[in-house]
Amino acid sequence: MYDWVDGYLLPKGTTIIINAWGLQHDPMRFENPDVFDPEHIAGCTKLAPELANGAYEDRDHYGYGAGRRLCPGIHLAERNLSLAMAKLVWGFEIFPALDGEGREKAVDTDAKTGFEVRGKTREDTIRREFGEAQEVFAGYES
């Protein structure tokens, strides 16, 4: 058994993975997709569940997945994130970080900032599973 989608043959058992990174880095949609810029969603006022069921061009992100695999907790997750942000803004004055001489430090938007593996066992697991994933995805590289 097989199926054809947009001219591509999909044999039975084919794994299809949404290209969330590509969708969220589309230069036709975002002027500078590789630059952290909250302004690119400034006009987006709809909630994620409403956007998830609409046209893909209107979605501001794919963090909750898409289609049949859409996160069933999308409503709860988005409301909890909104509530958490509201409590932070309500409860705290938020200022830029300062260096040792009291000057504002530049905001570090590097995605690799702040992540440190907790122990050798976890590092070994991450490296092993990353290697396995590379083997799986190698067949899809052109």
UniProtKB/TrEMBL annotation:
One of its GO terms (molecular function) is oxidoreductase activity, acting on paired donors, with incorporation or reduction of molecular oxygen. Heme binds at residue 71. The keyword Oxidoreductase applies. This is Uncharacterized protein. Keywords: Heme, Iron, Metal-binding, Monooxygenase, Oxidoreductase. Its cofactor is heme. Belongs to the cytochrome P450 family. Pfam families: p450 (PF00067). The lineage of its organism: Eukaryota, Fungi, Dikarya, Ascomycota, Pezizomycotina. The keyword Transport does not apply.
